[in-house]
Specification:
The structure is a single chain. A hairpin with a 5-residue loop joins strand 10 (277-280) and strand 11. The relative contact order is 0.11. The chain contains seven helices and eleven strands. The longest helix has 32 residues, at 2-33. The strands form two sheets. It has an eight-stranded mixed sheet. A three-stranded antiparallel sheet has the order 6-7-8, covered by helices on one side. With 311 residues, the chain is of the alpha+beta class. It has three domains: 2-60; 72-170 and 268-308, 2-Layer Sandwich (Alpha-Beta Plaits), CATH 3.30.70; 180-254, 2-Layer Sandwich (Double Stranded RNA Binding Domain). It has helices spanning 2-33, 37-60, 83-102, 132-136, 224-255, 290-294, 299-308, and strands at residues 72-78, 106-114, 120-128, 141-148, 157-168, 183-188, 204-209, 214-218, 266-271, 277-280, 286-287.
């Protein structure tokens, strides 16, 4: 019933747009016949409003996959390169948190492992809000950064990589069945800077799905129960994402297209030297405003990717 109500609302918006377009067209014909410039200007304003509404409706059509409207969780993993890659992972985390803030999404860091000198080795963040997964799924893959290293005494140019994973958040509604015997649960003390225990009571939770080898860690809540609940949500999402990836790989195999997931296949490049450019290698969309992108202005990149998948 919830899905039916949403579809009926979408149909109403399309029919209203059609009626407004018909009225504007009729009014324009009359205004041209009577040489009524004021009315022509009014029609021009209405046409501009109709165009914006149409763009919004067309964008909504891009989110038609089963989990697009769900909350999401994303993980960032620093690639090879030590401090350089760990600092790049930290920059990506800031970028996504700023992006989420601009959309009014609620974020919560579920697990974070800091780098030895700077940045982070890995982090997992929960994002709550309408279309969180539908938008963020465009970000999964390897992200490549080219810049003059702030950690190099000779100020040489370095290339760094980080992997972004995105999964939908799923409630335990029976859609994904996980046999209890397939999951090993470990409880331990959460660690902070330098490895010291954050608290005396063991509250951190690690889930290991034995058949797939998927490991989920959650340690940022003070309650062991809350950490366990969040960890199970992430585990269910990762199992769904694994299923989606297997289906996509099978479709690609049937089509005869070679798909290889690895560090050599960056989905997006961020170049800060010798010139300024962010380029998405899948949609070919690019922009010279690297400052805006790294500050969370990702919508154009995300929309370009989503449109490239249906064109």
């Amino acid at each position: 019933m919830k899905d039916l109500t949403a579809r009926q609302a979408d149909m109403t918006r399309w029919k209203d747009l059609q009626a407004r377009l018909r009225d504007a067209n009729d009014l324009l014909e009359l205004a041209v016949e009577e040489n009524d410039n004021d009315t022509i200007l009014q029609v021009a304003e209405e046409t501009s409003a109709l165009e914006k509404e149409l763009n919004a409706l067309e964008l909504a059509l891009l989110f038609s996959e089963p989990y697009d409207h769900n909350n999401a969780a994303f993980s960032i993993h620093a690639g090879a390169g030590g401090t350089e890659a760990q600092d790049w992972a930290q920059m990506l985390l800031r970028m996504y948190l700023r992006w989420a803030e601009s959309h009014g999404y609620k974020t919560e860091i579920l697990e974070e492992t800091e780098g030895e000198e700077a940045g982070i080795k890995s982090v997992t963040v929960q994002v709550a809000g309408e279309l969180a997964y539908g938008r963020l799924k465009a970000e999964r893959g390897v992200h490549r950064l080219v810049r003059l290293s702030p950690f190099d005494a000779n100020n040489r140019r370095h290339t760094s990589f980080a992997l972004v994973e995105v999964i939908p958040e799923l409630e335990d509604d029976g859609e994904i069945e996980i046999a209890p015997d397939d999951v090993r649960v470990d409880i331990y003390h959460a660690s902070g800077h330098g490895g010291q225990n954050v608290q005396k009571v063991a509250t951190a939770v690690r889930l290991t799905h034995v058949p797939t080898g998927i490991v989920v860690t959650c340690q940022n809540e003070r309650s062991q129960l809350q950490n366990k609940e969040n960890a199970w949500k992430v585990l269910r999402g990762r199992l769904v994402e694994k299923k989606i990836e297997e289906q996509e790989a099978e479709r690609a195999r049937i089509k005869g297209k070679h798909v290889e997931a690895g560090w050599g296949n960056a989905i997006r490049s961020y170049v800060l030297h010798p010139y300024q450019m962010v380029k998405d290698n899948r949609s070919e969309y690019e922009t010279a405003r690297t400052d805006l992108v790294l500050d969370g202005d990702l919508d154009s990149l995300i929309e370009a990717y989503l449109k490239s998948q249906v064109s």
